[in-house]
Amino acid sequence: MSQSERLVLATRYRLVSEIGQGANGTVWRGHDELLDRAVAIKELRLPENLSENDRVVFYRRTLREARAPAQLRTHSIVEVYDVVIEQGRPWIVMEMIEAPSLEQLIERSGPLPPERVAHIGRALLDALGTAHKAGIVHRDLKPSNVLLDGDRVVLTDFGLAFSSGSASLTKTGHFMGSPAYVAPEVAAGEKATPRSDLWSLGATMYAALEGRPPFERENVMATLSALANESTPAPQNAGALTSVVTGLLEKNPTRRLSHARAVDRLERALAGPRTGRRPPTPRYRVAVVIGLVGATIASCGIGATALIVGMMKESPGPSPTEASSPAGGVQDVPAGVATSTLVVRARNSACKIFVSVPDGPVLSDETLLESEARQYDQPRINAVIYDASACDVWVNGLRKPLGTPGERRNYALNKQ
Length: 416
Hints:
By secondary structure, the chain is an alpha+beta fold. The chain has helices spanning 52-70, 102-109, 114-133, 184-187, 194-210, 220-229, 242-248, 259-271, 282-299, 305-312, and strands at residues 8-9, 13-22, 25-32, 37-44, 80-86, 89-95, 146-149, 152-155, 342-346, 352-356, 362-367, 373-376, 380-385, 391-395, 398-399, 409-414. It has four domains: 4-95, Phosphorylase Kinase, domain 1 (2-Layer Sandwich); 102-271, Orthogonal Bundle (Transferase(Phosphotransferase), domain 1); 282-315, no CATH class; 319-414, no CATH class. A hairpin with a 5-residue loop joins strand 10 and strand 11 (362-367). Keywords: ATP-binding, Kinase, Membrane, Nucleotide-binding, Serine/threonine-protein kinase, Transferase, Transmembrane, Transmembrane helix.
């Protein structure tokens, strides 16, 4: 056991094991021996080239900016319990959240579906709204600082990074902050503001949708050059979130989406298109067309039977009792098809799905094993099938036709 792992901070916080290291220090798994609970402890590492005056400023800023988010009581911001000075450096004691970061999820699974990104973006807007009202600017919002604990989205490291609030290069050429997610005005030397955090949110959502941030290049200088000189690329996978992401990534902060407008656009995207009356299902549309065609043909003295049969083949699919899979797939119908909003069964190991309740929890984000099935009875569901040839899908009791390999299908479902 190392000397650090034997350390007890403020006579109560015992370091248990190292969780990870970053540019600003080390995060430890700890135990609060007074309250008998697990905690996360961030050991902040001071840059070696700081003068004595800079060290004093660093300590004061750390204490001030760690205490501020400790007053923020919201589900979407990590809770800060304590700040202590031990062995000549500050340590931040926080709630322990054992969950992957958004960065880890992107690296593991690639781009996320718009429905999931919308849920994440909405939670982060809530977190930023709470912080900004308290006068706190995050200054380093990025996927690695966003934890995904089930349905909970948690923003971490509020004001804890060593940053003056303006982006600059150190004497050794290291960028203070995260250049791939920093707002253009901050990179140009201006003070960070709430609008700067909104840019970082846009870059984070872009990365979640596309798999990488909009201006990331091979090194810091190339990234900053692209940020300053290139137009913001349009996201390709954003769907209904396009106007939200492009509005947040407006380079001129005065034209950038405000917090309120971002919330409005995101909630519109989550709600989907609204109409005054629910459109008829394909089955009823087919019936109307059949009637008209049949009447027209009959008036011409032509037998309509063959044409009506042809029209019936355009219906969404056979009834659950008739559903079957083409050769190579599973032939039987899963249980519960007739009464479920959605049933998905894997034809092979490429059947990857994402299912969520609008404005609610994520139900599934997984790759199914061959022949494995999932059933969803919730009245409203959003679903993404990443390979329409790899999954058998039943919607409201009707089997959907198979798609082509690699074809992605999105469903916004209401139980009939």
